[in-house]
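As a warm-up, study this chain.
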Amino acid sequence: MSTTRKVTTTYMHHASWSALPKEDQELLKLAQRAARNAYAKYSKFKVGAALRMTDGEIIPGSNQENAAFPAGICAERTALHAAMTVMPRGQVDTMAIVVPQVKGRDPVTPCGICRQALLEQENRQGSPVRLLMGNVRGPVLETFSAESLLPLSFDSSFLRK
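Now compare it with the structure written out below.
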């Protein structure tokens, strides 16, 4: 017997950056600034990320492409892996993601690999990672956990013990 189940995602939609607290606006600005350091020679799609650790430390990241696709790395994972390299027991509080030159007004959300990496970080630290996905000229989407972007996710419970 088969059953249908429904998966829902909860997020907040903010009309603009100015609708957010100053510390979140600053994190979005730092992500926008990080996008300037992107190496997007092939896609021309520059992405910036900035994450705030629970101790207040800010770590930026930008996408870095390579002619040998898919050898590049996204901005979200660049920032996340840099943070975990220097603070292996650190905890990520919030990550902002900005694509300065995006078509349309909708913010860009993380790709599937980045969603998986963010979910792994949540499992690693035992607490959610808040995400701010902003468009420079428009709205911000806010989730209170990376898990909300990756329902029915894969985790260590599937691995042989």
